[in-house]
Amino acid sequence: xxxxxxxxxxxxxxxxxxxxxxxxxxxxxxxxxxxxxxxxxxxxxxxxxxxxxxxxxxxxxxxxxxxxxxxxxxxxxxxxxxxxxxxxxxxxxxxxxxxxxxxxxxxxxxxxxxxxxxxxxxxxxxxxxxxxxxxxxxxxxxxxxxxxxxxxxxxxxxxxxxxxxxxxxxxxxxxxxxxxxxxxxxxxxxxxxxxxxxxxxxxxxxxxxxxxxxxxxxxxxxxxxxxxxxxxxxxxxxxxxxxxxxxxxxxxxxxxxxxxxxxxxxxxxxxxxxxxxxxxxxxxxxxxxxxxxxxxxxxxxxxxxxxxxxxxxxxxxxxxxxxxxxxxxxxxxxxxxxxxxxxxxxxxxxxxxxxxxxxxxxxxxxxxxxxxxxxxxxxxxxxxxxxxxxxxxxxxxxxxxxxxxxxxxxxxxxxxxxxxxxxxxxxxxxxxxxxxxxxxxxxxxxxxxxxxxxxxxxxxxxxxxxxxxxxxxxxxxxxxxxxxxxxxxxxxxxxxxxxxxxxxxxxxxxxxxxxxxxxxxxxxxxxxxxxxxxxxxxxxxxxxxxxxxxxxxxxxxxxxxxxxxxxxxxxxxxxxxxxxxxxxxxxxxxxxxxxxxxxxxx
Length: 602
Ligand code: O2Y
Ligand code: MN
Fold this sequence. Notes:
Distance between the termini: 78 Å
Shape: globular
Helix content: 25-40%
Strand content: 15-25%
Largest sheet: 9 strands, mixed
Bound molecules: 3-[(carboxymethyl)sulfanyl]pyridine-2-carboxylic acid, manganese (II) ion
């Protein structure tokens, strides 16, 4: 079939953009091409279209104004790391932690799947900006997709539409993002990144991180590659402002592996017993931070996104009141339970579960149902999500649109560590801080792929998201420190240390503010600490524990540095470092040696 597209009516004079779209359309052969302008009318039109086909279901508009429901294919409910590739011309550039495919082979394989895959469908052209349009931080992408659900998600998660196209002008740089659902066959699913071509191709999936190409693919994998070339940092980090009783706001960037509560921390609500102090939390972002050194020699950050793609199960008014308030309207719910009266529910939501519903697999569901093996049948998938505009968050920072972002005073790394790692400690300096980030690790939970309980090293929480060789990435972090006049202080936190019976020692959630207060105190040089072989650790009296029912022994255990356990940890780090071979920076090898010497000294 020969299809013509009315190119002369396209709303751009950007020749390269037009040539690329024609090329992609010739490959995928959509029946129509629709340029997204980002308007309200367009949103309504797309929703109506998707309601007709069943791609989206309108929720009860009295209870959930502006909200819609979507269910993905049951084989397509999470990012697929094993099908995600970095396609650089050499394997060395992708490094030992990424799947690698030569670009020619990758393009060839994907081309075969994309070929003719949009016949009978519309190809949507989605121009989007990661970061405020026109900010020196920002990057523009154009995503082609055959999926309305993806367009509507991109509309929430990014600045999208005509204003971006205008900014792109006639020859602006952009990331070429091609997405097609094809036939959702797992065997024909590929998430391909071509950093050298500034290109992303994703085929065979309709879910989250695989298809919202501005998010993990562009804002982390491609951006981390560009950031190294251009001298900045693209990180898997939340950004939050902590306003202290004097009105001073300290901004903190925090890297935690997936499923460690980043969204909850970014929206923290001060506990009752600390409210009298007058702390307030301002949310800048819950997932991604782009950070640059400004003319003052300090590190400034923006959140390049405009929405939250948060995990629904476990979210309730106790665990995250701000998230619950955020998702009350204009939200897309994916793979949660749907009731007959067009209401939604997930495990861990407030109130009683509904008497019946249709679960994430599209099957009838009742509370307490078990499968043939006697396992509980879930209403919502553990990775079910809400996509909500950040602007609806009650704790939203007023600097979200600021073109220079916020000044970062502290970087916090964290993981889920039942043993060994204290509640909080501070690095001796930037280089030692990079070592803390490079060696961070986390226990796998039931919701994650892999062996439950296993400790997985996840440097800077970037293991699945670094778009190039991680050894070179560590060197880039070290180099960034050398360029800053006053780099942020670097800390490590662990909310998940357990006692000998496996019970969490620290209450977590809002109480984490007590730890942040110490971190801020260290930045302002007002909080005390003791020097240990692993860094500066607070004494119990250095933290405000007023109103917290925690025994002195529990507190001491939380802050205990067990030298034997740390020597074991150091051996594991040594093994992990070996995987990077000669790409591991000498400075990190030296940091490990220095840690071992400090541990053996006393
Ligand atoms: O499973 C997915 O596709 C989404 S994963 C995700 C979504 C929002 C924020 N972070 C993550 C992550 O895995 O880090
Ligand atoms: Mn994330």
